[in-house]
Design goal:
binds glutamic acid; Carbamate kinase; 16% strand; alpha/beta; glutamate 5-kinase activity; 8-stranded mixed beta sheet; disordered C terminus
């Protein structure tokens, strides 16, 4: 990894992009095409791109004739098992026009704590990237449920970005940037930049959001961005609609500067999920 600025995302060597369930499923399933366009542009510039995508449960719901997100874990897992391959098919279908091949990688947070699993995952990802394949990562929902319960893969994406020494982690959702307090509240101001040693306790990111398709929210994004930045990976929080701009180095979103002297812990790191 190397320390880059927001503008240098344009020529980054390696970037992890994370997208949440609600951005690419249901009525937003069509956004997969524009997201893939943005990823393909970065790929064409020579950037190694890893996509961490949620949305397995949300994509599987109609196949199980579910109108709402199931509340019990077993049905969530069943929906994820059905939805995951549909989701990867949709990505591959959109990537085909660019001649890019996707590789599915399913991981659990526990894999990062097991030295053998950890090094196996890193080696496989390195080889995929060396082969110019675009890895698409999700939590392995049939054996792990951490990201179903907390964070919609935000934390998993931070762990992946550290594992492979990415230059940056881009967390895409439906907000253009983080705010000093929930944007619906008076006095909320956009946060443009967070220095690696800034105290975040002055900000009110609100509770973890659980909506009809996924879980997450500003708090889990800030926590994941911090986890990446502490490990030496700069992080950017912005909207999926700005994916192409942001990967081209536009001055948008909330930028978390990377710690210039990271102490890289083995495993999942010291910071928990918000
Ligand atoms: N791994 C889950 C999925 O892809 C996480 C998202 C969620 O909490 O709904 O569906």
């Amino acid at each position: 990894m190397s320390l880059i600025s927001r503008a240098e995302l344009n020529g980054a060597r390696r970037v992890v992009v994370k997208v949440g369930s609600s951005s690419i499923s249901g009525e937003n399933a069509g956004k997969i095409d524009s997201l893939v366009d943005a990823l393909a542009q970065a790929h064409a510039r020579g950037t190694e791109v890893v996509l961490v995508s949620s949305g397995a449960i949300a994509t599987g719901m109609p196949y199980l004739r579910l109108d709402e997100r199931p509340t019990d874990l077993a049905t969530q897992q069943a929906a994820a098992a059905v939805g995951q391959n549909v989701l990867v098919y949709r990505y591959q279908d959109a990537l085909r026009q660019y001649g890019i091949v996707a590789g599915q990688v399913l991981l659990t947070a526990g894999d990062f704590d097991d030295p053998t699993h950890r090094s196996n995952a890193r080696r496989a990802m390195e080889r995929l990237l060396g082969l110019r394949i675009l890895p698409i990562v999700n939590e392995n929902d049939t054996v792990a449920t951490h990201e179903i319960r907390f964070g919609d893969n935000d934390r998993l994406a931070a762990l992946v970005s550290r594992l492979i020494g990415a230059d940056a982690l881009v967390l895409l959702s439906d907000i253009a940037c983080l705010y000093t307090r929930p944007p619906s509240e008076p006095g909320a101001r956009p946060i443009e930049k967070v220095a690696f040693d800034d105290d975040l306790s002055a900000y009110e990111f609100g509770a973890t959001v659980v909506n009809s398709v996924g879980t997450g929210g500003a708090a889990t994004k800030a926590s994941a961005a911090r986890l990446a930045a502490e490990g030496g990976v700069a992080a950017l929080v912005t909207s999926i609609d700005l994916a192409s701009d942001v990967l081209a180095g536009a001055d948008v979103g909330t930028w978390f500067e990377a710690n210039p002297a990271p102490i890289l812990p083995q495993g999942t790191g010291a910071i928990g999920v918000a």
